[in-house]
Design brief:
- The structure holds two protein chains of two kinds.
- By secondary structure, chain A is of the alpha+beta class.
- Chain A has two domains: 60 residues; 82 residues, Glutaredoxin, CATH 3.40.30.
- Helices cover 47% and strands 11% of the residues of chain A.
- Chain A has a four-stranded mixed beta sheet with strand order 2-1-3-4, with helices on one face.
- The longest helix of chain A is centred in the first third of the chain and has 14 residues.
- Chain B is globular.
- Chain B is built from 23 helices and 17 strands.
- In chain B, helix 9 packs across helix 10 and helix 18 packs antiparallel against helix 19.
- Chain B is α/β, with parallel strands linked by helices.
- The chains are: A alpha+beta, B alpha/beta.
Chain lengths: 162, 592
């Protein structure tokens, strides 16, 4: 999907980010984090704008962005569901919860966002809440000791919500 | 109203919040107000505290009336009004909601040094920390001791790095102090990446000032004027509380220029990690702070000689730094009296998995693993049989039943092929397949390998492929030997700790559970009945009551049947998720 051009408001925002980090050593990650939080993902048009403005190679930004799991290169769904795949969650059956959500959200093979942009399912290594494993984070709210039943109820709520 | 002082403490670490801590605290505030109780006490406070350790029982609430403490467990907002009415207004604690004997057993064997104030004080209130002796150690160091004295003290205490490697902290500080250069850095490594470990998160969420105080003391000793906390972005609550704590410390001139008139200039910046496990490695962490791809480089030079921006840098783990103020306050001898000869002090562990009491525990080094699992942990849940404890995350190993009496310290665990690591302890039971456990960790290290060196990048991939094959029932004769050979090569030739330790889960499971590998390869059987490709589910006609529970639970629509008639499972549709097995109350679903 080709990206649309930057709007004026977006340009203003990006210029603000550039100004904030201008001349600061080692700010590439911080700039990318700002892009991720402003756009919901690391948008190509935004990276290109910022790199040019800061007079740094675009490839430098992409090199760093692709290294870290936190950065996404495609727009994400309106609901973000994070499944913890840490060891404790794994041995307490997180795989089954994940399989269940892949089916419920109708995620296409190899994709983490549903075609209608309602749901993004992401797996993370460990959210550090292992004593209440398995853990699912639904739109930033942590749910512990998750079961298929409880999860299905939450999904129903999300689906009913829009 | 007889009582004079009332204090209510609600656990609001990540665990407490997930269980609804915020709602419980609001309910208490509303109830106290509603009943006009605030005015009736000499001192009345209700507030949040950090992790109390026993997260499985959240929300935990302390109600302290005139120094008399009652702890309640599993509290929900709707239970609050009864506690306020019966306990606080009428003086009769609600016995049925109080913690029971097992709560005390959970705590009895623990010695809380690092976690001493966690769960007792409001982490967002610097005053609460100061009231309990906080920042006294920093004041003492700045006004009475020279940098060399402090280093000597830390060396004498025997404190070793709590991040995993166990390097003596005082020696590290001394090396950085002696490195030439005007600009030096202190970095707190809060990039707690091991899956199954959450002690650093809990310490920062529960008592962030202890870490800041440790950093101030480190800065003074080493001669650093700049500090960083490199913390995972996946820990939003810890980041928020850390920032609040840093601001409060700056306002009290505990950070900034000329700290407390001592002449020391030192301030701390927060750097958010961006999700890369390898950044827990010192040189990778430095690259990440510099804004680059977090790839490790060869050592030496070590960071103490040439670290961040090429300057001498000390990198200490959260728990290590949180120990420092306690050592200064109570003395090196006191600290060294805890633990064993080579592993002094206490260690915080995250006890999780198939154990009854999951949570955060702090124990003196040297106590047997058996005590942790069966006393503190209360044994295996659901009456299952113990199989192993996995320690040290992806760099660690498994400890089988025969070795349950091992003493928990750096050397003893190393001898077994496991490690203390950052302190994750995941208990596994008879339902866990050890080949699958090894595959799980290799899947992790393979995807987290930074790709810089070949043995790690390619080697972990090949290990994972072999393990994948074995768990799918496609193992071949010679696979075990190939795993062993490849593991040794990767260990010997990888650039950094990630690769050098990545094969450990394979080697350790091969050492103690070789028969499970053999069963997968030769008999195409998974003894734990966990590997999906090697098991089948069926419904026993004789036992099935036709209740329909399995039919409703089946996500694949593979089960059909009439009410009160035995149900049928269509093998062609079955995805082997085990949902039917879990919900059947009559043991009619058979797993083979």
């Amino acid at each position: 999907m080709p990206e649309t051009a930057l709007t004026e408001a977006e340009i203003e925002k990006l210029e603000g980010i550039c100004a904030k980090y201008a001349g600061q050593k080692g700010s590439v990650i911080a700039v990318l984090q700002e892009l991720e939080s402003s756009f919901g993902y690391v948008a190509e048009k935004a990276v290109n704008f910022v790199a040019d403005k800061m007079e740094m190679p675009r490839s430098h930004f992409y090199g760093v962005a692709t290294f870290y799991a936190q950065f996404h290169f495609k727009p994400r769904g309106r609901n973000i569901i994070t499944a913890c795949s840490g060891t404790a969650c794994h041995v307490k059956g997180s795989d089954r919860l994940i399989d269940n959500m892949v089916r419920e959200f109708g995620l296409p093979e190899g994709e983490d966002t549903s075609a209608d942009m309602r749901f993004t399912l992401e797996k993370v290594n460990c959210v550090g809440a292992c004593s209440i494993a398995p853990v699912i984070i639904i739109n930033k709210e942590v749910h512990g000791k998750m079961t298929t039943d409880k999860l299905n109820k939450e999904i129903k709520k999300l689906k009913g919500g829009q | 109203m007889m009582a004079m002082n009332l204090e209510i403490k609600v656990c609001m670490g990540t665990g407490g919040m997930a269980a609804g801590g915020e709602g419980v605290l609001k309910a208490f505030e509303a109830e106290l107000k509603h009943n006009g109780l605030e005015a009736g006490f000499g001192k009345c406070s209700s507030g949040k505290v950090g992790c109390r350790g026993f997260c499985a029982r959240d929300v935990l609430v302390d109600v302290i009336v005139d120094g008399q403490k009652t702890t309640y467990q599993y509290i929900k907002p709707e239970m609050v009004s009864r506690i306020v009415k019966e306990h606080i207004m009428e003086g009769r604690p609600v016995a049925e909601w109080e913690v029971k004997e097992d709560y005390h057993i959970f705590h009895d064997k623990q010695i809380k040094v690092v976690l001493h104030d966690c769960g007792e004080i409001d982490p967002e209130d610097i005053g609460a920390y100061i009231e309990r002796g906080g920042y006294e150690a920093a004041k003492k160091v700045l006004s009475e001791l020279g940098p060399a004295d402090v280093i000597e003290l830390v060396k004498k205490s025997g404190l070793r790095g709590r991040g995993g490697a166990g390097f003596p902290t005082g020696v590290k500080w001394e090396a950085a102090r002696k490195s030439p250069g005007d600009v030096k850095y202190i970095i707190c490594n809060a990039d707690e990446g091991d899956p199954g470990a959450f002690m650093d998160r809990s310490v920062i969420e529960g008592n962030p000032h202890s870490v800041i105080e440790g950093m101030i003391i480190a800065a003074y000793s080493v001669g650093a004027s700049n500090g960083y906390v490199y913390i995972r972005a996946e820990y939003p609550l810890a980041v928020e509380r850390l920032r609040i704590a840093l601001d409060a410390a700056r306002q009290k001139n505990l950070l900034g220029k000329n700290i407390l008139g001592s002449g020391l200039d030192f301030d701390i910046k927060v750097k958010l990690g961006a999700g890369a496990f390898v950044c827990g490695e010192e040189t990778a962490l430095i690259a990440s702070i510099e804004g680059e791809r977090g790839m490790p480089r060869a050592k030496p030079p070590f960071p103490v000689a040439s670290g961040l921006w090429g300057k001498p840098t000390v990198i200490n783990n959260v728990e290590t730094l949180a120990n420092i103020p306690c050592i200064i306050r109570k003395g090196a001898e006191w600290f060294a009296s805890l633990g064993t000869e080579k592993s002094r002090g206490t260690k915080v562990f995250a006890l999780t998995g198939k154990v009854k009491n999951t949570g955060l525990i702090e124990i003196p080094m040297g106590i047997p693993l058996r005590d942790i699992v069966f006393e503190i942990g209360g044994g295996i849940e659901n009456g299952k049989k113990y199989k192993a404890v996995q320690t040290g995350g992806p760099s660690g190993g498994c400890i089988p039943e025969d070795c349950l009496d091992v003493k928990i310290d750096y050397e003893s665990l190393m001898q077994l092929g496991a490690i203390v690591g950052s302190g994750g302890m995941i208990v596994l039971d008879e339902d866990d397949c050890m080949v699958n456990v090894a595959r799980y960790f290799l899947n992790f290290t393979q995807s987290e390998s930074c790709g810089k060196c070949v043995p790690c990048r390619v080697g972990t991939k090949r290990l994972l492929e072999i393990l994948d094959r074995i768990t799918k029932g496609e193992g071949r004769e010679g696979d075990i030997e190939l795993l062993e050979k490849l593991s040794q090569d990767i260990k010997l030739t990888s650039l950094c700790g990630l690769g050098q330790t990545a094969p450990n889960p394979v080697l350790s499971t091969l050492k103690y559970f070789r028969h499970e590998y053999e069963a997968h390869i030769r008999d195409r059987k998974c003894p734990a009945k966990a590997c999906r490709a090697l098991i089948t589910f069926s419904i026993s006609e004789a036992l099935c009551k036709g209740c329909g529970a399995c039919m409703r639970a089946c996500p694949a629509g593979a089960i059909t049947g009439e009410k009160k008639q035995p149900h049928k499972l269509n093998q062609a549709l079955c995805i082997k998720c085990g949902s039917c097995f879990d919900v059947c109350k009559f043991k009619a679903v058979v797993k083979e």
